[in-house]
Write a structure and sequence with these properties.
The complex is a heterodimer of chains A (404) and B (140). In chain A, strands 4-10-9-8-7-5-6 form a 7-stranded mixed beta sheet, with helices on both faces. A 4-stranded antiparallel beta sheet of chain A has the order 13-14-17-16, with helices on one face. A two-stranded antiparallel ribbon of chain A has the order 1-2. With 404 residues, chain A is α/β, with parallel strands linked by helices. Chain A folds into 2 domains: 134 residues, Aspartate Aminotransferase, domain 1; 243 residues, Aspartate Aminotransferase, domain 2, CATH 3.40.640.10. In chain A, 40% of the residues lie in helices and 17% in strands. In chain A, 49% of the residues are buried. Chain B has one domain: Sufe protein. Chain: A (Alpha-Beta Complex). Helix content of chain B is 50%, strand content 11%. Chain B is built from 6 helices and 2 strands. The radius of gyration of chain B is 14 Å and the shape is globular. Classes of the chains: A alpha/beta (404), B mainly alpha (140). At the A-B interface, helix 12 of A face helix 2 and helix 3 of B.
Chain lengths: 404, 140
């Protein structure tokens, strides 16, 4: 069992007031809050051993390098990767996706196909469109049903020997649907295609095992996992990372440089040009320790309880409709009330101290599917409470009354 | 009335409210009473970009004054538009271009001015002024 009152003590921001009301933070799918232990790690780094890594012979540099590489190890262990050099520390999910999308430029030819899901965030659509423009490859989309689930029979039909890459999120940011990635990966491999999974929304709720999944690439961001912003990971199978060219040129990614020719460093440094987010990487490791100390089974069980409670309470409001009603979903509730614009509700409940996301959640195709301008999205984390959900429900009722 | 006078009048009106709820309720009322833009002007070219809600603005010249009509699919945004139209519509282009918009802060709607708010109040004001600039060029 998870002791939520004790856990809340770990997060200084949860004591804040907003507009004179206690903060109710339900925008966890956008970014998670930061526990004191992660804040301490950041302060400790800048207070005690701030130095550039992998270069200096001096003590500070050595300490910083060690701490950074320990963090990489922690990420490797957390995601069950075979080797630590299969973990590329990036600036976040978007950066990670772009490394792969750019890397595939020379691996694709005209007429090859890339399959993406209809549940994607903009950042997951654009790099593939750009890749298609560069290579002449064709983008195919796995459609979804009214519940927000991917149509797997259509996926079967889309797959062929032309398919070179399949890309989908593990969990949808706009609707919370958990996609059947095991099946997606297996079928893609049978067709001879590589698979990249975006775990940005999944990692706060589940602990993926990349070897068991047999996934080729898996990406995520630290800031959704109680870590700092500006750091994330690209996991890639060793053979795939060796196949892809470097993404950026710069320091750290080189082996030898002359004006005639440069030879690149080995993994993971080949993809880590320039001075990385050293402090962020170290704090990412600490954030993973923190999440694991609570335990992902306990987190999932508790968040599921919040999801059920929140769904039931919100549905008691007349005219409220929830978008994304798959049985397999995480603690994200996307909703609208009658024809009230989500922006109006969001503006009013903000005044009541409640932080939610409103709008299209950078997933316009999903909003187009439902023919709505956007939704109000409340996303719960393990540090939220049922009492906070009650506050949300009361606030939404008040907004509805004002706007009716 | 001049733009300045109308702004002062609006500030006085909002001063009567004790809290944000009353201010919002008033804005919602204003939004509901906003004279709507003609359907034929609700085109994609009249949409102001960068808003979470859709905002359409149409402008025309009448006797050297700019007349604005507008609409939005969100009611609070519509209330804000109603206030802006009250301030700017029926004014001379030069006055619109030179007007400052400090009054928005004074009536407690500063948060709607934040670009991160993405409600487009900033883009809306910019668009109204752009129309004024265009009409002023015609007058010269």
């Amino acid at each position: 069992m998870l002791d939520v009152q004790n856990i809340r003590e770990d997060f200084p921001i949860l004591k804040r007031q907003v507009n004179g009301k206690p903060l109710v933070y339900f925008d966890n799918a956008a970014t998670s809050q930061t526990p004191q232990t992660v804040i301490d790690a950041i302060v400790d780094y800048y207070s005690n051993y701030n130095a550039n890594i992998h270069r200096g012979v001096h003590t500070l540099s050595q300490e910083a390098t060690d701490a950074y590489e320990i963090a990489r190890k922690k990420v490797q262990e957390h995601f069950s990767a075979k080797h630590s050099h299969e973990i590329i520390l990036t600036s976040g999910t978007t950066h990670s996706i772009n490394i792969v999308a750019t890397g595939f430029t020379n691996l694709l030819s005209k007429g090859d196909e890339i399959i993406v899901s209809a549940l994607e965030h903009h950042s997951n659509i654009v790099p593939w469109q750009m890749l298609c423009e560069r290579t002449g490859a064709i983008l195919k989309v796995i459609p979804m049903n009214e519940e927000g689930e991917l149509l797997m029979d259509v996926y079967d039909q889309l797959l062929s020997n032309k398919t070179k890459l399949v890309f989908t999120n593990h969990i949808s940011n706009a609707l919370g649907t958990i996609n059947p990635i095991e099946e997606i990966i297996k079928k893609a491999h049978n067709a001879g295609a590589a698979v990249l999974i975006d775990g940005a929304q999944a990692c706060p709720h589940v602990k993926p095992d990349v070897q068991a999944l047999d996934v080729d690439f898996y990406v995520a961001s630290a800031h959704k996992l109680c870590g700092p912003t500006g750091v994330g990971l690209l996991y890639g199978k060793e053979e795939w990372l060796n196949k892809l060219p470097p993404y950026q040129g710069g320091g750290e990614m080189i082996d030898e440089v002359t004006f005639e020719k440069t030879t690149y460093a080995g993994l993971p440094h080949k993809f880590e040009a320039g001075t990385p987010n050293i402090c962020g990487g170290i704090a990412f490791g600490v954030a993973l320790d923190y999440m694991n100390s609570i335990g992902f089974d306990a987190i999932a069980a508790y968040e599921n309880e919040l999801l059920e409670y929140g769904t039931q309470k919100l549905l008691e409001i007349e005219g409220l409709k929830i978008y994304g009603t798959s049985k397999n979903k995480t603690s994200v509730i996307s909703f609208n009330i009658d024809h009230i614009h989500p922006y109006d509700i969001g503006s009013i409940i903000d005044k009541l101290g409640i932080a939610v996301r409103t709008g299209h959640h950078c997933a316009q195709p999903i909003m187009d599917f439902y023919k709505i301008p956007g939704t109000i999205r409340a996303s719960f984390s393990f540090y939220n409470t049922k009492e906070e959900i009650d506050s949300l429900v009361e606030a939404v009722k008040k907004a509805k009354m004002m706007l009716a | 009335m001049t733009i300045q006078e109308i702004q002062e009048e609006i500030v006085d009106e909002f001063d009567m409210f004790d809290d944000w709820m009353q201010r919002y309720e008033y804005m919602i009322e204003l939004g509901k009473s906003l004279p709507l833009i003609k359907e034929k002007y609700k085109t994609d070219t009249n949409i102001i970009k960068g808003c979470q809600s859709k905002v359409w603005v149409h402008a025309e010249m009448k006797n050297d004054k700019v007349a604005f009509t507008a609409d939005s699919d969100a009611i609070i945004t519509k209330g804000i538009i109603a206030i802006l139209i009250r301030v700017f519509s029926g004014q001379h282009p030069t006055d619109i271009i030179e007007a400052n918009t400090d009054f928005i802060d004074k009536i407690g709607l500063k948060e709607h001015l934040s670009p991160t708010r993405a409600n487009g109040l900033v883009s809306m004001i910019k668009q109204l002024k752009l129309y004024a600039i265009a009409y002023q060029t015609q007058l010269n």
